Amino acid sequence: MALRFFYSQLFVTPPALTGSYTGQTVIVTGSNVGLGLEAARTFTRLGADTVILAVRSLSKGEAAKRDIEATTGRKDVVRVMQLDMASYQSVLDFAAEASKSLPRIDIAILNAGVARGDFESMEKDEGTITVNVVSTFLLAFALIPKLRETATKYNIRPTLTITCSEVHEYAKFDEKRAPEGQIFPRLAQQHVNGKHIDMGERYQTSKLLEVLAAREFCDLYPASNFPITVNYVNPGLCQSELSRDSGWGLWFLKLFLARTTEVGSRTLVIAGSSGVGSHGEYQSDGKITPPSEWVRSEEGAKVQKRVWDELVGKLEGIKKGITKV
User: Fold this and answer.
1) 169: which residues sit within 8 A by CB, 6+ positions away?
2) How many angstroms separate the CA atoms of 219 and 66, rounded?
3) Other beta carbons within 10 Å of 222
4) Catalytic residue among 88, 203, 232, 282
5) What is the rounded end-to-end Cα distance, in angstroms, of the chain?
6) CA dihedral 291, 140, 272, 82 (to 10 degrees)
7) Of 134, 132, 206, 197, nearest to 170 (Cα)?
8) Is 268 helix (H, G, I), strand (E, B) or coil?
9) Strand, coil or helix: what is 279?
10) Is residue 150 a contact partner of residue 105, using CB atoms and an 8 Å limit?
11) Distances in Å between the alpha carbon of 258 and those of 35, 168, 255?
C-alpha cells in the first residue's frame, strides 16, 4: 500500500479534461477553496451553463466566484449557495433549494469534508463523522429525486460523485467490533474504556465508512435499474486546506509529496464525467481501481452491511422517508 501511494504521488499525473459541459448544471460542495474550487473552475472553463458553489461561508463563496470568473472569463455561470455540512437542517435546506431553483442537475460532486484534530460533537456525533459521512449521504439521498427527474426529463444519466480517500486502507476502525447496532454510537464517544479516542485515526475511519456506504448503496441499486451513476473517488494527497485542522504530520507529508490542487481536482472532474461504467466503482489516479483488500473481504462485506443499516437508520431519524429512492 505504501509503495503504491508513493508511486502514485510521485509518478502519476491524472490527465486534464478537455471535453464540453455545455448545457449542464454542476454542483460542487466545499468549493470555495482547494479541490472543490479547482473542479468548479474546470467545469466553468469547459462550458457548463451553471456551476453551484455549495459552501458554508457565503462571503468566501462569493470571493471564489469572482476568482473563477476572472480566470475563465465567463460571467453569469457560477452561483453561490449556502451549505453547512455540520448542520443536518442546512443540508436539507440546500437540497430543497437546489431542487426547486435549478432546472436540472447533471453532476453533483460531494466533496466537502474535514480532517479534525480535536473531538467536537456536531449533531450528536463526532464532527468528522457528521460532516464526512452522515451529512454526505444525507445530501446524496436528498438530491436523488432531482437527479432522477433530470434523468427522465432530459434522457441522460446524471452522476453523483463522493470524494473519499486512499487512507481508507489505513483505517484501524476498532469500532467495527462494537455490538450489533453500536458502530455509530461508539464513534460518538469521546472516551472508550476510560481512554480518549484516537483522533489521528478518525479521518481514515470516516473515509472507510464512505467507501463502505457507497459500495452498499450501489449493490442495492445497480446500474441496470438505477438511472444515476454513483461513484467515489480518491484524489490522492493534494495541496488543499484539509490539513488546517489535522496537525503538523499531514502538513509535513504534503510539503514533500502532495499534488497541486489543480492536478488533484482533475480526479473529481474525471469521476463526475465517467458514465455508467463507473457506477459503484472506486477511482484513483483518474481510473477505476479496487478499494482496499479488507473492503473486498468477507469480513468487509459483513461490516459494510452493518454500517449501511446503521447509517440508514440515522438518516431516517433525521428525515423520515429520505432513503426511499
Assistant:
1) 1, 291, 292, 294
2) 41
3) 10
4) 203
5) 36
6) -130
7) 206
8) helix
9) coil
10) yes
11) 12, 18, 6
Q: How far, rounded to the nearest angstrom, does the alpha carbon of residue 320 sit from its chain's CA centroid? A: 23
> What does the pLDDT look like over 166-197, one tens digit per residue?
999 999 999 999 999 999 999 999 999 888 99
- CA geometry: angle at 140 spanning 134 and 142, to 5°? 100
Q: What CA–CA distance (Å, rounded) separates 38 from 44?
A: 10
Asked if residues 253 and 237 have their Cβ atoms less than 8 Å apart, the reply is yes
Residue type, 55: V
Do 267 and 238 meet the contact criterion of CB atoms below 8 Å apart?
A: no
- Name the CA dihedral angle for 59, 65, 68, 70, rounded to a multiple of 10 degrees: -90
φ/ψ of 311, rounded to 5, equals -65, -45
What is the predicted pLDDT for the residue at 195?
87
Q: Which three cell numbers mark 148? A: 432522477
65 is catalytic: no
Q: What is the DSSP string of 121-147?
A: EETTEEHHHIIIIIHHHHHHHHHHHHH
Element (H, E) at 206: helix 202-220
Q: Given 146, 176, 207, 314, which residue is catalytic?
A: 207
**Are 242 and 207 contacting, i.e. CB atoms less than 8 angstroms apart?**
no
Task: For residue 213, count other CB atoms closer than 10 A to its CB.
Answer: 24
CA diameter of the chain:
57
For residue range 77-102, list pLDDT tens digits in order. 999 999 999 999 999 999 999 999 99
Is 0.70 surpassed by the pTM of this model? Answer: yes
The length of the chain in residues reads 325
| 207 in catalytic set | yes
Instruction: Please report where in the chains the cell 486512499 appears, as a residue.
Output: 166
Question: What's the grid cell of residue 292?
Answer: 482496499
Which residues on adjacent β-strands are paired with residue 231? 161
